[in-house]
């Protein structure tokens, strides 16, 4: 992978900066040896732990300090919506910003090399923010760009190679060799036909948003105006009556940082004396955060240090973590600005200032998929074009006559030139069975994905549809009425909560710590949810939907839901990897063991928990408990901890409690059960009615349950003619110490490390293929991720998959010895609608970065000429004709696996791909 970087002035400078970052860490950091020669950084460190270094957290000599922070003493901070704006004005013209506002250059202006360390939004010696001539801090200027109602320059199908990078002067001061460059483009997308936006006129943008990757700073509340709930209650359009929202005054989430039940809060007086005494140990109510995020610092607990601007890099440089609310049929233009430091060494020891954004696992054109080699530089932007179409757009329901394939809308709202009817939905083309729900997007920078994502470059994304519209009272026979709320027509989040889990580590000064040299994988010892240390969340005595994302680098989870007495709480899994299941799955589940199935990095589990029966029994606290133990980042231990041991973890007085090395074991999130407001009734769906079988109340016999979302089917002819491909995830012999140990072998070939010039597989658009994934390296765990298309698991180790995989589609495939996983997975995949360059890789991102990643291309007649490999630099991308090596294919890229034993001996189960007996014939989409 590294051999493909451009050998230029950039690497001399960056090697110097990286050397500074590694050679000048805090005293507690792992000592490493490096050498810098000819601009190439060579790191002499393997996966072994040095003497005196802890296994958890990876690479530190002592646990992360907590500065007195206690578990469950401060509320979780809920996600903040990016918010979407109309791309076109009332005349149908794109909204061009007449003021020509672009990413502001650093304050103060960079005039010498010593200013290059990312001191943007900084304070002077007296602690006052440095301002420009108009009195604006750098944060003020960033907020102005976020709130801007137009774009400059306007997006176009081809990258803009004319407008200069607004940071050009600073770049020429800071980056050796750039002073001679005549042009450094503002647009970071590779220019020319190779990375032009596909089907730009077919899917012209309807909405847009801008976001800025920037160093940690105090939130200015710039996105308050974009919150769909408006921090207010809803209003019935016909009667004008108030519709309750938990984001309105008196609701649980009107205050963004503190609980209304906290000491000094508006609902504290409703508690008993004992309850008020308990709340006194938690963060007190802070009035200034009512209905705003303004003033929130980047700190994972009020008692822990605020993070330095070079320790944490997030969207807008702020928390809360960000959420994109999107709906099918409404194309989105996402302009991502890069405001990271010019000096690569201004990173507190990890992370790189070039970025690429992957919408995991969007059905998007390749140029907007976040290809690892299509990265962009500080001062630049990249326009991502996300059509928001259902898979099968070009082949199924092309006339948009199937009401199950539809965009949710507010009656009377004008959408894409059409007025939303009273039915509250507008049909769209495509296969409704391909409807997705819970996604996320994150950095995919070549070689630096782990570091950049861990540092904060990640957000979540909710897809809304006629099937999953986010309104539990909307009863049209199509909407599944998942727990959500009803204050607006779609997209309510009152009882639909996004949770991103991450294990973090901190140096002794309290700053975020990461060791990029441990190629096995990185483990933190501080459990966070939504960037908050072991938080609590107020919940009503009713059903909730939780969208749980594992956002870690290397850590797997196995999560149990447990009440305050240590008993497992029943719940239902309704979606897996953002795909709604055909049938819900009840937990606890004997097939899973205790808790949810194992959850690897990037997997998403959507669950519904009903707190009402617990509240009625006097239960007031419920916990999420982690059972999956690690002693190395290479993978979890094969046998999880019991609920009983994990529930009382690190209680040395209890000899049966877990007291070993992994501090992420045990309770990591608390739910505090609160009564429903007067007059409020839970009318959301009952997931127990949708399990594979249910008990008929009249006959007392087992009968088929209701269907949530039928699986897409395959014809016998498609499966019989499908190409087979084999992918073996492996490791080089330990004697080879080149720092990139992880490999993938394709179709019987040798194990290869990543090379973004190499096309390892080239399926034809509209084809069905069967991919065989294998992990034959002893003890390692590899969560394999295939970009662009969802797959259906045919078998695990030759056996039919468990119900939580049998009834759904996946984009993550756990390969390993741990519980609920397997060494072999067979997957059916259908490639359609778009072409271009995608990747497959291990989502233990330290494995991915070191170099367990391969490129695959979706091809058709329009792509007979391969997409050339871009090599971005300050003066724009360079392609292979510049002498940087030719894009090429493996011999089996077109043919697939024709002679491997795995492919030849594979027997397809007779019923795979067919409509299940309990799925109605009418489930087939309209042609």
Summary, kept brief:
The protein is mainly β and 927 residues long. Strands 21-20-19-23-27-25-26 form a seven-stranded mixed beta sheet. It has a six-stranded mixed beta sheet with strand order 34-33-32-36-40-38.
Shape: globular
DSSP strand (E) fraction?
15-25%
CATH superfamily of the domain at 86-220 and 297-394 and 436-464: Cupredoxins -  blue copper proteins
Distance between the termini: 44 Å
By DSSP (H or I, 4+ residues per run), the number of helices equals 11
Helical percentage: under 10%
| Structural class determined from secondary elements | mainly beta
Walk me through what this model shows.
The chain is mainly beta and 927 residues long. 8% of the residues lie in helices and 24% in strands. The longest helix is centred in the N-terminal third of the chain and has 15 residues, at 9-23. The chain is globular, with a radius of gyration of 26 Å. The two termini are 44 Å apart.
Notable features of this structure?
single chain; 927 residues; mainly beta; Immunoglobulin-like; seven-stranded mixed β-sheet; six-stranded mixed β-sheet; disordered N terminus
């Amino acid at each position: 992978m590294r051999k493909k970087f451009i050998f230029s002035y950039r690497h001399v400078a960056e090697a110097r900066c990286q050397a500074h970052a590694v050679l000048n860490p805090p005293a507690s950091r792992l000592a490493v040896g490096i050498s810098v020669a000819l601009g190439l950084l060579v790191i002499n460190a393997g996966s072994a732990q040095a003497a005196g270094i802890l296994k958890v957290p990876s690479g530190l000599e002592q646990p992360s300090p907590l500065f007195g922070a206690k578990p469950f003493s401060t509320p979780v901070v809920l996600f903040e919506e990016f918010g979407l704006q109309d791309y076109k004005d009332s005349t149908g013209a794109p909204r061009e910003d007449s003021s020509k506002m672009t990413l502001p250059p650093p304050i103060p202006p960079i005039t010498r090399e010593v200013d290059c360390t990312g001191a943007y939004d900084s304070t002077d010696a007296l602690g006052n923010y440095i301002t420009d001539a108009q009195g604006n801090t750098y944060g003020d200027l960033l907020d102005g760009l976020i709130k801007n109602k137009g774009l400059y320059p306007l997006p176009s199908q081809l990258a803009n190679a004319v407008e200069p990078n607004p940071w050009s002067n600073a770049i020429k001061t800071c980056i050796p060799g750039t002073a001679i460059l005549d042009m450094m483009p503002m647009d970071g997308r590779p220019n020319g036909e190779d990375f032009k936006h596909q089907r730009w006129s077919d899917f012209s943008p309807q909405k847009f948003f801008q976001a800025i990757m920037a160093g940690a700073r105090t939130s200015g509340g710039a996105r308050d105006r974009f919150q769909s709930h408006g921090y207010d209650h809803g209003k019935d359009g016909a009667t004008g009556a108030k519709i309750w929202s938990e984001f309105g005054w008196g609701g649980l989430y009107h205050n963004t940082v503190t609980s209304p039940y906290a000491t000094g809060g508006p609902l504290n007086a409703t508690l008993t004396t004992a309850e008020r005494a308990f709340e006194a140990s938690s963060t007190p109510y802070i009035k200034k955060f009512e209905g705003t995020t303004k003033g929130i610092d980047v700190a994972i607990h009020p008692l822990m240090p605020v993070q330095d601007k070079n320790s944490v890099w997030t969207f807008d440089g702020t928390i809360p973590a960000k959420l994109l609310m999107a709906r099918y049929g409404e194309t989105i233009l996402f302009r991502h600005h890069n405001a990271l430091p010019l000096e690569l060494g201004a990173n507190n020891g990890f992370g790189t200032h070039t970025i690429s954004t992957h919408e995991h696992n969007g059905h998007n054109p390749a140029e907007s998929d976040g290809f690892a080699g299509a990265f962009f530089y500080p001062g630049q932007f990249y326009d991502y074009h996300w059509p928001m179409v259902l898979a099968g757009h070009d082949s199924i329901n092309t006339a948009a006559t199937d009401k199950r394939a539809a965009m949710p809308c507010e009656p009377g709202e004008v959408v894409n030139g059409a007025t939303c009817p009273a039915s509250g939905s507008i049909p769209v083309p495509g296969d409704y069975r391909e409807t997705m729900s819970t996604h996320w997007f994150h950095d995919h920078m070549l070689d630096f994905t782990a570091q950049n994502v861990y540092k904060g470059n990640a957000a979540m994304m909710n897809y809304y549809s006629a099937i999953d519209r986010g309104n539990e009272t909307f009863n049209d026979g199509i909407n599944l009425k998942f727990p959500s709320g009803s204050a607006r027509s779609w997209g309510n989040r009152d009882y639909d909560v996004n949770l991103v889990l991450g294990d973090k580590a901190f140096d002794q000064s309290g700053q975020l710590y990461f060791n990029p040299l441990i190629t096995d994988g990185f483990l933190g010892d501080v459990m966070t949810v939504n960037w908050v240390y072991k938080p609590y969340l107020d919940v009503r005595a009713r059903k909730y939907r939780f969208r749980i994302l594992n956002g870690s680098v290397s850590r797997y989870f196995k999560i149990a839901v447990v009440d305050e007495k240590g008993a497992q709480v029943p719940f239902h899994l309704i979606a897996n990897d953002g795909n709604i299941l055909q049938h819900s799955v009840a937990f606890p589940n004997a097939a899973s063991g205790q808790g949810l199935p194992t959850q690897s990095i990037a997997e998403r589990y959507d669950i519904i928990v009903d707190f009402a029966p617990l509240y009625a029994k006097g239960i007031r606290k419920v916990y999420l408990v982690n059972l999956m133990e690690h002693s190395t980042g290479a993978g979890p231990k094969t046998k999880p901890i019991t609920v009983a041991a994990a529930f009382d973890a690190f209680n040395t007085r209890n000899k049966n409690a877990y007291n070993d090395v992994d501090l992420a074991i045990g309770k990591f999130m608390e739910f505090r059960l609160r009564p429903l407001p007067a007059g409020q009734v839970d009318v959301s769906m009952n997931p127990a009615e949708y399990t594979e079988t249910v008990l008929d109340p009249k006959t007392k016999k087992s009968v088929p349950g209701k269907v949530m979302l039928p699986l897409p089917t395959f014809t016998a002819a498609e499966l019989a003619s499908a190409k087979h491909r084999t992918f073996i995830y492996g490791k080089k012999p330990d004697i080879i110490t080149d720092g990139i140990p992880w490999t993938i072998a394709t179709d019987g070939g040798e194990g290869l490390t990543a090379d973004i010039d190499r096309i390892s597989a080239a399926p034809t658009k509209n084809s069905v293929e069967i991919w065989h994934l294998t992990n034959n390296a002893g003890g390692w765990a590899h969560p394999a991720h295939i970009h662009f298309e969802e797959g259906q698991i045919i078998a695990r180790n030759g056996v039919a998959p468990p119900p939580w995989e049998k009834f759904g589609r996946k984009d993550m495939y756990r390969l390993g010895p741990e519980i609920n996983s397997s060494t072999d997975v067979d997957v059916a995949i259908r490639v359609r609608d778009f072409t271009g360059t995608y990747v497959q890789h291990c989502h233990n991102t330290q494995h991915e970065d070191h170099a367990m990643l391969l490129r695959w291309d979706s091809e058709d007649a329009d792509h007979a000429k391969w997409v050339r490999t871009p090599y971005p630099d300050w003066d724009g991308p360079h392609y292979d004709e510049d002498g940087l090596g030719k894009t090429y294919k493996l011999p089996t890229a077109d043919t697939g696996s024709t002679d491997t034993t795995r492919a030849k001996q594979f027997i397809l189960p007779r019923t795979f791909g067919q409509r299940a007996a309990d799925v109605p014939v009418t489930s087939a989409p309209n042609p």
